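Subject: Interface between my chains keeps coming out wrong

I've been trying for a while to get a sensible model of this assembly. When I model each chain on its own everything looks fine, but I need the whole thing in one frame so I can look at the contacts. Pasting all components below, labels as-is. Any help appreciated, I'm running out of ideas.
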Amino acid sequence: MDSQVTIIVFTSVLLALSQAFTFQSPENCKWRLQDGNKNKIALDCSIRTINSDFDIFKFRSDQSEQITSINVDCSDVFFFQSTMEPRAFQSFYHLQQLDIQFCKFKSLPAGIFLGLDNMKSLTVRTHNSDWSAMALELISNSLVGMPHLESLDFGENNLWDLPERVFCPLPALRHLNLTANRLQEVSKVGVVRGCGAHLVTLDLSANDLVALPKAGLAGLKSLRELYLQYNKISILHDGAFVGLSALNVLNVSSNRLVALPPDVFNETTGLQELYLQNNSLSVVALGLFCSSQSAHCIGYIC
Ligand SMILES: *[C@@H]1O[C@H](CO)[C@@H](O)[C@H](O)[C@H]1NC(C)=O
Ligand SMILES: *[C@@H]1O[C@H](CO)[C@@H](O)[C@H](O)[C@H]1NC(C)=O
Ligand SMILES: *[C@@H]1O[C@H](CO)[C@@H](O)[C@H](O)[C@H]1NC(C)=O
Ligand SMILES: *[C@@H]1O[C@H](CO)[C@@H](O)[C@H](O)[C@H]1NC(C)=O
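Reply #2:
Try treating it as a single job with all components included. I did that and got this:
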């Protein structure tokens, strides 16, 4: 009996050792297996800034191959600036998920994500607004190199505008979250002119939008969910939602709307959930939601 126990203990120690030897985590990072799969390793790193402590080039190349997920948290105690070079992550060519939080970037250089053919989900939240003067700037080539990216979260970055074609290199993009930035005009959100044809959700909540111009988001023909709450929208122009024929959920609550143009929902025939609370709407034209063959008229109005 005793010897059996010893053997079991011995084997598990051996197993643990062999596992520890197969992966040597960089300083400041912890590693774990994803789905119990040895070839899928997730790294969780807590560092001060990205340039100094997280030297991704130091990885042994046979190790970086196994990494499918990286979470990086920079210290937000001291406001040290982070910087990254083009192709910063290219040795991680099996990477599917990258989440960078609290690292203070001023800009994301061209080609920083080049080589990430398997990326599905990218989050960069600088929380730059903690450092009020610091905005994040993207250039039109900042996001090249991720042909399979489906989900992008750039919330809380103090973004004031985005280059016109910045999302064009992401043909698989479905979910875009730009919440809690400083965006003032939908025309400067980088999703128009054919770049967002496949977007399904767009979150622009908690920005500084003041108006929605006619056809401002036209081109987002697959868009099903649009979140505009907590902006400063006082004007919806006639035709504000034209082109959004797949729209299902629209949240324009907590804005400054006083009126809705009579035909504003004439093309969003699939609209099922509309949130308008916490505006200054007094009279809503009867029939506004029923003029089209809208699947569900909004109950309390029709
Ligand atoms: C966008 O991010 C915020 C903050 O994490 C989250 O609350 C919100 O649900 C996200 N939006 C969508 C559409 O998932
Ligand atoms: C809906 O209204 C807009 C703005 O008034 C107009 O340009 C568009 O042609 C209308 N669409 C339909 C289908 O009536
Ligand atoms: C809509 O926005 C309000 C804020 O005004 C928020 O409380 C609510 O959760 C949002 N609902 C959905 C479904 O997005
Ligand atoms: C109503 O809108 C104002 C202005 O956007 C916001 O500050 C407030 O939190 C909102 N109230 C609720 C209950 O969502």
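Reply #3:
Confirming on my end. Confidence is low (pLDDT under 50) at residues 17-21, 291-302.
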